[in-house]
Amino acid sequence: MKHLIPLGHKITTFQSQVETKKTTYSLLFTRYNENGIFNNSGFDRTTAKFRLKQKLTKKISFDATINYAQTNRKGIGTTADSGRFNMLAQILSASYRWA
């Protein structure tokens, strides 16, 4: 079964792994982009992971992992601030006061 992705969302993934007798390295890259429901709003996240495993001797090995993550939010959305002051609540509140 395929995972459903709502319209306005885009996921890009790249993964690679190379193994030899003594060395293994892997690279994973993911980019998630979501258009917001309001004009000039949205969310995007970029993550990357690089892992290197090297067998130096029979008893000694080297294992290193580097992780990278960046998240960006544009504009105001319904959960941009964990719901404390969301845009929809402000609109409803303003409509109620002026009605």
Question: What does this 3D model show about the protein?
Answer:
β1 and β2 form a beta hairpin. By secondary structure, this protein is mainly beta. It has a 4-stranded antiparallel β-sheet, with no helix packed on it. The radius of gyration is 22 Å and the shape is elongated. It contains 1 helix and 4 strands; from the N terminus they run ββββα.
Report the β-strand fraction as a percent range: over 45%
Per DSSP E runs of 2 or more residues, the count of β-strands stands at 4
Low-confidence stretches: 95-99
Instruction: Walk across the major sheet and give the strand order.
Output: 1-2-3-4
Largest sheet, in brief, is:
4 strands, antiparallel
How many DSSP H or I helices?
1
What is the topology?
Layout: E1 9-19, E2 23-35, E3 42-55, E4 61-74, H1 87-98
Antiparallel strand pairs: 1-2, 2-3, 3-4
Features:
99 residues; mainly beta; 4 strands; 53% strand; elongated
Sum this structure up briefly.
This protein has 99 residues and is mainly β. The chain is 12% helix and 53% strand.
